[in-house]
Amino acid sequence: MEVPGLAHNLSSPLSPCEGMIKDLSLDSIQLCERDGKSQDGSISEMEELPVPQSIRISNITCDSFKICWDMEARSKERITHYFIDLNKKENKNSNKFKHKDVPTKLVAKAVPLPMTVRGHWFLSPRTEYTVAVQTASKQTDGDYAVSEWSEIIEFCTADYSTVHLNQLLEKAEVIAGRLLPFSVFYRNHNKEYFDQCRDEHENRMLPSVKDNSGSHGSPISGKLEGIFFCCNTEFNTGKPPQDSPYGRQRFEVQADALFNPDTNLYFGDLYCMYTAYHYVILVLAPKGSPGDDFCKERLPALDLTNNRFLTCKQSEAGDGRLVFHHAQDVILEVIFTEPVELSQGKVSEISGHQLMSLSTVNAKKDPSCKTCNISVGR
């Protein structure tokens, strides 16, 4: 098996796409420039090489896919390599001022199809790409003859799988810190929000679709419906903080109303926003609910009584009470997947400030943080 390497001074003429590729874990893969013909004119066009037809993309993950195509039989035996032009669709025209030496196209030995393209350096989750293919024949003098480019195909990469989420989970466990007791979940918002809950939603807070904050590959962003709650407490008081970025009105509900043995707990994400502190997203879903069914297929489940983030246990006093603890060193964002009656708790005004700079609404994850990123795109 040959080790992938860089192929300087190689190029393919008139690539139909634009973009940048940095890596590919495929046998005998190379990266080459796309800047018209190379300086030494090492590639020439030969019409007799078959053009790939009916390109098909399958087995798509967040950082890999399989590709295959049909070819005419003529000169098929002369094919030694495939040139694969892969680009982010949204960045189609973003690189017109790029340096010509930046590698932008993949060169693979002509292996049996389908072949797997995998590389977290250039494939990101939930991202639209275009791909086109050429066949090539390496000559005895090192030059290449190439076919015309195939048609351009579009596809979109997938969300993180449970394998990737478990990697994030392990990272989150390392930084979670010790467990502190708490007794209420709370949700801050503005007065208009709670007035709307009373007047238009029959005194209920209703689930809404989660925004795009956190990891780009998170399977819950833009899909899972729920209500955000907090549970972190101040170390010196043991009570919720009096400041919030989301509004001066606060709804508080006893923890056992949302978190009890009839609830399943799932790990959703780990991220930061270019700051020293990190956020962990957890999902609370009543057993058998639509939210529970959604999470079972996509998220790692946590033991309610034994995990590093949020626990619910019977009191050691033997009085039948439930006791609750939260992780000290991460900020927990808890999504409850069902409607919540305002009558289950109380709404009051906090005495602190509305710190808008701390809002995580559609917050973008820091892609350079080694603490909360994994090697499958960001």
From TrEMBL:
Domain annotation Fibronectin type-III: ranges: 51-160
Gene Ontology CC, one term: cytoplasm
Pfam families: fn3, PHYHIP_C
Function of the molecule: May play a role in the development of the central system.
Similarity section: Belongs to the PHYHIP family.
Protein name: Fibronectin type-III domain-containing protein
Origin species: Knipowitschia caucasica (Caucasian dwarf goby)
